[in-house]
Design brief:
- By secondary structure, the protein is mainly alpha-helical.
- The protein has ten helices and four strands; from the N terminus they run H-H-H-H-H-H-H-H-E-E-H-E-E-H.
- Helix 1 runs antiparallel to helix 2, helix 4 runs antiparallel to helix 5 and helix 7 packs antiparallel against helix 9.
Length: 268
């Protein structure tokens, strides 16, 4: 079926995501990245932190991508994102916009590729001060802490599956295939072992949809439906809060009382 060229950038984004074949969690990540570029096209700074997911991007015409000054505006926005988001995040966002622009271009929805000036940056080499993964003794100490179920489930999942923190926090309850200790084929492929398999059914406790890892409080009214639990009205747990919780719980386990980081939970 031929789709009429959309007028709005946001509508073009939804058409691209619908045709991408991505799982629900991946589509959410791609949508956030493409929404970030909408702020750049409107010459407005993108929200940061938890507000980034909740903020509604500006309404823009898709034809804005064909303006001759758009590549320069995107390049300036990329330079700003490097300072605020880091190289890996920026490269992922560039790749996402490039793929979407190429899809729109092949359908004749835009006549030029505005991303040609966006060049992914080289990743910095790991430094000697990068934190090392936790040792078996440290993991045993972590998993015997008197920490809440949510934290223990997330820590076990990160270690046993090797998932990135972003992928784990993007999981929804209906992504899980609990009997087979894996996610369903429609989402990012993850597998876990006994520790996670023991904790996840307790964490879900009858929930059938919504974010897997939830905040302690009800979600603000501005929270998107995809980040709100339909059973409890609580919001999806953020990266910042998950990191704070691990650091707080593990301060007594570190000599300098700084605690461990979520990325240290991934296996060697």
């Amino acid at each position: 079926m031929t789709i009429r060229p959309p007028v709005e950038y946001a509508v073009a984004v939804e058409h691209y995501l619908a045709a991408s074949g991505l799982g629900t969690g991946s589509r959410r990540v791609y949508r956030i990245a493409l929404d970030t570029w909408a702020w750049a096209l409107a010459d407005r700074p993108a929200p940061t932190g938890p507000e980034r997911r909740r903020a509604r991007p500006p309404v823009l015409p898709l034809a804005l991508l064909d303006r001759p000054d758009t590549p320069a505006r995107l390049r300036a926005a990329a330079a700003h994102r490097t300072a605020t988001a880091g190289t890996r995040t920026l490269n992922r966002e560039i790749s996402t916009l490039r793929a979407a622009a190429a899809w729109w271009l092949t359908r004749g929805w835009i006549s030029t590729d505005p991303t040609t000036a966006l060049i992914p940056q080289a990743l910095p080499a790991p430094g000697p001060t990068d934190p090392a993964p936790l040792t078996p003794d440290q993991l045993r100490a972590l998993f015997t802490l008197r920490a809440p179920l949510r934290e223990q489930a997330l820590w076990h999942l990160l270690h046993e599956s090797g998932a990135t923190v972003e992928a784990a926090l993007a999981l929804d309850v209906d992504h899980l295939d609990l009997p087979h200790r894996r996610t369903h084929p429609s989402t990012a492929p993850l597998r876990w072992r006994t520790g996670t398999a023991r904790l996840l059914p307790l964490l879900i406790a009858g929930r059938t949809a919504g974010p897997l890892f939830l905040t302690d409080r009800r979600a603000p009214a501005t929270t998107p439906a995809r980040d709100r639990c339909p059973h409890t009205a609580r919001a999806r747990l953020s990266y910042r809060r998950a990191a704070e919780l691990l650091s707080t719980h593990t301060r007594p386990l570190t000599p300098d009382a700084t605690g461990w980081t979520l990325r240290q939970l991934r296996p060697h």
